Amino acid sequence: MKRIVTIQDISCVGKCSLTVALPIISAMGVETAVVPTAVLSTHTQFTGFTFHDLTDEIQKISDHWKNEGIGFDAIYTGYLGSFEQIDLVKKFFDDYKTDNNVIVVDPAMADNGVLYAGFTQEFADKMSEVCAKADVIVPNLTEASFMLHEPYAGDDYDEEYIKGLLKKLTELGAKKAVLTGMSFKEDEIGIMGYDSEEDRYFSYYNEKLPINFHGTGDVFASTVVGAMMNGFSLEESLKVAVDYTLECMKLTVANENHRFYGVDFESAIPYLVRRIGK
Ligand code: PXL
Known about the structure:
Elements: E1 3-13, H1 18-27, E2 31-42, E3 51-53, H2 55-68, E4 74-77, H3 83-96, E5 102-105, E6 110-111, E7 114-115, H4 121-132, E8 136-137, H5 141-148, H6 159-171, E9 176-182, E10 188-195, E11 200-207, H7 216-229, H8 234-254, H9 269-275
Parallel strand pairs: 1-2, 1-4, 4-5, 5-8, 8-9
Antiparallel strand pairs: 2-3, 6-7, 9-10, 10-11
Helix pairs in contact: 1-7, 2-3, 3-4, 4-5, 7-8
The protein binds 3-hydroxy-5-(hydroxymethyl)-2-methylisonicotinaldehyde (PXL).
């Protein structure tokens, strides 16, 4: 069985970060080790959330695993809470990267043109150092714009502009860059990516619903990692992730009692498992 490690916070209520990555990747038949970087009562879109920093644990956990001879088929990072955590994650990559594993970075720090609570342009610059070490990065347009010091284009962009951003993202150092939430037709949304080693662009779109939910980026990135660990190519994995994220959103809309803070990814897990042929 493949084993991955994901490094991000645990928001105890919120349907994001570890409470999404752990169930989704596990459901895909992949052992999912975790490095919790902080414990929050909820994600930061709530007011009054508590925050307990676990930065001091990161190196200790990593050192113990080294002693045990533990390795990973993928290293997947999401929301990170501080500059120091970013330095520790970069070191973790140096310690655990091999010729046979893959580093996937979701620079989860912003959406809809704004940074999440507590983050600054300097933090976005620091996050691009994590992206530089990745095989695959999956920012949304807001995150990419902050990392590249580009004005946020909102809905006002075309393919040429996105291709330019993708190329610049790989120039930060990542081998492959994927922009999520890309929409060039009113009724379609999906991804556009660039493979710098093959100098090739790719894209995939599915139905666009007239609604946005929090946490879909984490559902998406977790699914990409899980599908790759099931032997899917990156492009096939991105398709699975777009389709599953849409399925989660559809089931959320259909549930009139859905939570306001995240999607019903749990209800769509049977779809995901069927989709990857498990
Ligand atoms: O979904 C990304 C995310 C992860 N973790 C925390 C967050 C957010 C987004 O707001 O606040 C703590």
